[in-house]
Amino acid sequence: xxxxxxxxxxxxxxxxxxxxxxxxxxxxxxxxxxxxxxxxxxxxxxxxxxxxxxxxxxxxxxxxxxxxxxxxxxxxxxxxxxxxxxxxxxxxxxxxxxxxxxxxxxxxxxxxxxxxxxxxxxxxxxxxxxxxxxxxxxxxxxxxxxxxxxxxxxxxxxxxxxxxxxxxxxxxxxxxxxxxxxxxxxxxxxxxxxxxxxxx
Length: 200
Known about the structure:
The chain has one domain (11-197). Helix 1 runs antiparallel to helix 2. The longest helix has 14 residues, at 27-40. The radius of gyration is 17 Å and the shape is globular. The protein is an alpha+beta fold. The chain is 24% helix and 24% strand. The protein contains five helices and nine strands, in the order H-H-E-H-E-E-E-H-E-E-E-E-E-H. The protein has helices spanning 11-21, 27-40, 48-55, 98-101, 187-197, and strands at 44-47, 65-69, 74-79, 85-89, 102-105, 128-130, 149-153, 164-173, 176-182.
């Protein structure tokens, strides 16, 4: 998966910016400092909204890319008339804690005029996408897996197929994320994933 809008910088440039923003107290200054520290460590930054938009849409209007908590196993999508997209995980507690189990992005695609019911998504056709598992070598050492986000090429179906081209992300703030890892699922991983999750 090509991550359009990736931000990179040399280590020296990033460290210079870290020093500049160190000790700043404004929210945007702290976010910038965290971003420059990630760049100094050789990480890439992305604007998730830009990446999802650049990934495009299928003929039915659903996004080709999806993003949700890294501990989810399935994902549903809701499209909004204004062009916004909301991804929802498979947790039974999402009604009580919407912010933890939803990932909403405003104005991703062009506003639509046709009926939202014809778009699919969890409010309509019940189409879902299978969320890729994180291989042990890429699992975060700190914090719970649910504190991270996975981005992948989604197929929206009633019986989802294994996904492609995943990336593990950590949120910086707003729609800015640090790319922690990218990988490809092997044929064995895709087969086992399909067998275990198809009925869930």
